[in-house]
Write a structure and sequence with these properties.
The protein has ten helices and nine strands. With about 260 residues, the chain is α/β, with parallel strands linked by helices. A six-stranded mixed β-sheet has the order 1-2-3-4-6-9, with helices on both faces. It has a three-stranded mixed β-sheet with strand order 5-7-8. It folds into two domains: about 190 residues, Alpha-Beta Complex (2-enoyl-CoA Hydratase, Chain A, domain 1), CATH 3.90.226; about 45 residues, Orthogonal Bundle (Lyase 2-enoyl-coa Hydratase, Chain  A, domain 2), CATH 1.10.12. The radius of gyration is 19 Å and the shape is globular. About 40% of the residues are buried.
């Protein structure tokens, strides 16, 4: 795994790097978790792109390890995977997955943990675990339902079917489709746009993630607190004054 920080743009790139197809194993999960710990406290980075490079995002978990697993080892692997995915999801920065080639099984589960996903037109996405006699163990049964709806999640998980980019776009698994050689650059471009935004973007993300699973009356209480927190930021004063003087969309924010 490679972590690159660009403090000029405020964007970090995290690249999965385990040839040939970035099969996910315990070591990769550990490295990803460590990268998340580093980025969580990084005030110079305001958006993160997760990529597997130009060929494949990640073709799934390292299946060659599975014949050695007993129940306890399978549970430990799933728990480690979910801990890492939750660390990705909880990053304060806006996160975008740039998907080329395969994003299958555990690969798709890592991508599902980011805020947005963009993909090459020739990419393939899916959770084929049922075809191996198992089920997803890195959060797909839950995040697919939240992103694409319960019926679509059931269909993809129960069938193990792999879908192309156009179908993934239609069911809201991805946000945009680009040419294969443009995916990472476009994801970074998107990330730079978010990185140039106000500090309130992180508060908005916190509001969505914190309140999503709560009853509405509890969730809006969290929103109210985070709304009030905005008024402690420099960007609130900058944005409000710019709006009053110049109209919307003209402010230059500091991220503070």
């Amino acid at each position: 795994m490679k972590l690159e920080r660009n403090t000029n743009t405020g964007v970090a790139t995290v690249r999965l790097d385990r040839p040939k197809v970035n099969a996910v194993n315990e070591a990769m999960l550990h490295e990803l978790g460590a990268a998340c710990n580093t980025l969580t406290d990084d005030r110079e980075i305001r958006a993160v792109v997760l990529t597997g490079g130009s060929r494949h995002f990640a073709a799934g978990a390292d299946i060659e390890r599975f014949p050695t697993f007993d129940r306890a080892q399978a549970l430990a692997f799933s728990q480690q995977f979910n801990s890492t995915a939750l660390s990705i999801e909880a990053l304060p920065q806006i996160t975008i997955s740039a998907i080329n080639g395969y994003a299958l099984g555990g690969g798709l589960e890592l991508a599902l943990a980011t805020d947005f996903r963009v993909a090459a037109g020739n990419s393939q996405l899916g959770n084929p675990e049922v075809l191996l006699g198992i089920i997803p163990g890195g959060g797909a049964t839950q995040r697919l339902a939240r992103l694409a709806g319960v019926t679509t999640a059931k269909y993809l998980v129960y069938s193990g079917r792999t879908i192309g980019a156009e179908e993934a776009l239609a069911c809201n698994l991805i946000s945009a489709i680009f040419e294969p050689d443009e995916v990472q650059a476009e994801a970074i471009k998107m990330a730079e746009g978010y990185a140039a935004g106000p500090a309130s973007l992180q508060l908005a993300k916190a509001a969505v993630l914190s309140g999503y699973h709560l009853p509405l009356d509890e969730a809006v209480k969290i929103e109210s607190q985070l709304f009030a927190d905005c008024f402690d930021t420099e960007d609130c004063a900058i944005g409000v004054q710019s709006f009053l003087q110049n109209g919307p969309g003209k402010a230059s924010f500091t991220g503070r």
